[in-house]
Amino acid sequence: MKKGVVVKSTGSWYTVKMEEETIACRIVGRFRLEGHRLTNPVAVGDQVMVEVEDLEERTGVIRKILPRTNYVLRQSPRRKHFMHLMAANIDQALLIVTLREPMLKSGFIDRYLLMTEPYDIPVIILFNKRDVYQPEDFTRLEQLEEIYQNIGYTTISASAITGENIEQLRSLLIHKRTLVSGQSGVGKTTILNALDPTLGLREGALSDYSGKGQHTTTFAEMYFLDQQTEIIDTPGIKTLAFNNLEVQDVAHNFREFFEASDQCRFHNCTHRNEPSCAVKEAVEKGEISEVRYQNYLMILQEIEDQNYWELHQDY
Q: Which of 8, 16, 59, 214 could form a disulfide with 221 if both were Cys (CB 3.0 to 4.6 A apart)?
């Protein structure tokens, strides 16, 4: 068997890059992940052991997935009782958002961070399309950058069209493997083409009817900006839900809440109605963002609104 890395996933076939060649592989047998039911047991970025079946046709079989250093997991958008592996073995994530065309969905950034925080994956939050921002957008941009910088995330604003701050972005990606994500229409593909015009990726436009982005990326795929700089591009995200999480999972993965919770009276405090809650006190003092806190409450409510049947029905 030969060792390789998965560089493209189409759901049924996986492109695996080995030292001098790439081959198309299928999987045989069942691969599991901590009891989760998965729509795709193998992710781009996975290191795998491959048995080559046909040298001429360049096909093989993935026999083993090597241990992962980390992974990013989301609820499947089509099968809500299943999970979908977005990528594995990454150094950081780049979340691309924009305040206009299309407008940033309320709470979207915090929902995304719930997927990366369990593995302490560094996240760069890129506010794209600053060339179309209005004065009020720049005020909001300043507020959002302050919120996320204050809790340790890197933020940058840029324009793929004008090239503003693209070189600064490139410097943050060099010699790392980066998962790139964002809502449909935020300019993700345009950003990648700006970073490396030789990629020649197909760019989409906003729908005239809905004002939303249209998918240009169908499957996850790894691209190489140079031999040591890897980008994993993923399909645009429409919604993020969390059938896989419990209330305490959310509380533990809002990083500043978790840090403050040491001072809460109750060790299992959910930071809502409990007395002597250090998180609520910090919100009232302006030490924790009111915006983040409201997003947190909304996610908790969604999780609790899911009844037992929704969480445990076997499909």
A: 8
